[in-house]
Design goal:
This protein is α/β, with parallel strands linked by helices and 405 residues long. It is built from 14 helices and 14 strands.
Length: 405
C-alpha cells in the first residue's frame, strides 16, 4: 500500500470547511538592501496577526531543496501532487484557464509579449507589463493573419496583461519542448528545440519556428510589445482529480487564467467574475456555501517581487490581509502560504522555503504574534514538503481516521 492508498483508506467525510489562501511568491529574504526586514515583517497585517496567535507555523519546500519552482510545480505541490511526478507545461495550464477546450494531441504554449531592440535582443521580457487591451489587440492581429501553418491549426487567445496562449492543433504533434524565452534580458529569442528525439516533437519545433517567422514581422511596429516569448510548450497530461484524492468538493478563485487552469486541471470548479482581491474573498465566502474546499489565489505579491519593488509587495500583502477578514468566520481550517518565494532582492522565483500558517481548532498554537518568515522558522510544523499541506489540513479538519490499532 502506497501513501496515497493509505490516505484514501483513512478518509472520513464531515461538514468541515477548508480554505487555502495563496499569496503568490509570498516568501522573501532579509538582506542589508531591505534593512534586514522582509515585506511580511514591514506590512501591517491585523488579520494575519490574529491568526498567527492561534495557528501552527512552518516553512514549506515547493519541489526539493535548492530547486526554484515555476508557478505550475509550485501550485501542484500545494494541491498535493508531487511536482517531480506530475509535470505540466505552463501553456496547458494557461490554455485551460482561458477556457480553451484542449483536444487530445493539442500542443499549448504560454506566451509573453516582450520588447526587442533593433538587433532582436530582448530588452524587457514583459514589455513593460502592457495593458490587457493592448495584448488583446495584438493577439487579434496575429490570429487574423496566422490561422494555419501547413496542416496545423493555430489558436491564439489573449490573457491578462502581457500574457497570451498559442495552441497548435493537428496530427503528429508532441511535447515537451524547450522555451524560446531566454529567461533574462540581454539575449535574443531562443530557438525552440525538442527535448526528446521523437519525430512528433521535431515537427512541433518546426511549426513554431514557422510561426515566429510569420508573427514577428507583424509585430515589428508594435511598441513596446514588438516580440513574444514562448514557455511551457507541452500537451495535457493525465492527472488524478482533487475530489477523488481528498474527498473534498473544491472551488477555485483566481484572477489570472494560469491559476484557474491549474485548478481546473485537478478538477476544481472555476469561479468566474472576481477582478479584485476584495471580490476574490467575497466570492470565496459565497463558494463555501456549496463547496467543502476553496482555493484563493492572490497575484500581486509575486508581481511586486519580480519587479524588485519592496513597497509594492508590502502593499499587496496589506491588501490581501484586509480582504481576508471576511473569510475567517466561514472556515474551520485555513492555510495561508505562497506557492514559492519571490524575494525582492532576487527579482524572481527562488528556492527559499515559503512560510505557511495553518489555523484550526486543533491545529495547535505556536505562541507567535505575527506571521513572518522568522516566526515561521520557530513554528511547530517545521520544514516540510508542500505536497503534504492538504494532508495537514485534512487532519486538522478531522477528515482522516486513525491508522492501525
Amino acid at each position: 500500500m502506497n501513501s496515497d492508498q493509505l490516505y484514501h483508506k483513512l478518509l472520513v467525510p464531515n461538514d468541515s470547511k477548508l480554505a487555502l489562501v495563496v499569496l503568490d511568491g509570498l516568501g522573501d529574504i532579509a538582506t542589508e538592501s531591505t534593512g534586514f526586514r522582509t515585506p511580511l515583517e514591514v506590512a501591517r497585517t491585523p488579520n494575519l496577526d490574529i491568526l498567527a496567535k492561534r495557528s501552527a507555523l512552518g516553512r514549506m519546500i515547493a519541489v526539493a531543496p535548492g530547486i526554484t519552482p515555476g508557478s505550475g510545480p509550485g501550485h501542484l505541490g500545494l494541491f498535493g501532487y508531487d511536482p517531480l511526478e506530475y509535470e505540466v507545461g505552463r501553456g496547458v495550464i494557461e490554455a485551460l484557464g482561458l477556457g480553451i477546450d484542449l483536444k487530445h494531441g493539442d500542443m499549448a504554449a504560454r506566451a509573453n509579449f516582450c520588447s526587442l531592440d533593433a538587433k532582436g535582443i530582448v530588452t524587457d521580457r514583459r514589455a513593460g507589463r502592457i495593458d490587457t487591451k493592448v495584448c488583446e489587440a495584438q493577439c487579434t492581429l496575429l490570429a487574423a493573419k496566422i490561422k494555419k501553418i501547413g496542416d496545423v491549426e493555430v489558436i491564439i487567445r489573449a490573457g491578462k496583461g502581457h500574457r497570451f496562449v498559442v495552441v497548435l492543433r493537428g496530427k503528429g504533434l508532441e511535447g515537451q519542448l524547450g522555451d524560446s524565452d531566454p529567461h533574462r534580458e540581454g539575449l535574443p529569442i531562443a530557438t525552440v528545440k525538442p527535448l526528446t528525439k521523437s519525430a512528433k516533437a521535431a515537427k512541433t519545433a518546426k511549426v513554431l519556428a514557422a510561426f515566429y517567422k510569420q508573427a514577428l514581422p507583424l509585430l515589428k511596429n508594435c511598441k513596446p510589445a514588438n516580440g513574444f516569448l514562448l514557455r511551457g510548450i507541452a500537451h495535457q497530461p493525465k492527472i488524478p482529480l482533487f475530489e477523488e484524492r481528498y474527498g473534498l468538493k473544491a472551488a477555485a478563485i483566481a484572477i489570472y487564467p494560469m491559476y484557474k487552469g491549474l485548478a481546473q486541471l485537478v478538477g476544481m470548479k472555476k469561479v468566474e467574475g472576481p477582478n479584485t482581491v476584495q471580490q476574490e474573498f467575497e466570492a470565496a465566502v459565497d463558494a463555501l456555501k456549496a463547496y467543502d474546499f476553496v482555493f484563493v489565489h492572490v497575484k500581486g505579491t509575486d508581481m511586486a517581487g519580480e519587479d524588485g519593488n519592496f513597497d509594492a509587495k508590502v502593499k499587496a500583502i496589506e491588501e490581501a490581509d484586509a480582504a481576508l477578514g471576511q473569510l475567517l468566520p466561514h472556515v474551520d481550517v485555513l492555510a495561508v502560504t505562497g506557492d514559492h518565494s519571490t524575494p525582492v532582492p532576487v527579482k524572481g522565483h527562488s528556492w527559499h522555503p515559503q512560510p505557511v500558517m495553518i489555523c484550526g481548532e486543533i491545529a495547535g498554537w505556536d505562541g507567535q504574534d505575527r506571521f513572518t518568515e522568522r516566526t515561521a522558522n520557530l513554528g511547530s510544523l517545521g520544514v516540510f514538503d508542500a505536497k503534504y499541506l492538504i494532508r495537514h489540513m485534512q487532519a486538522n479538519a478531522r477528515r482522516l481516521d486513525k491508522f492501525g490499532a
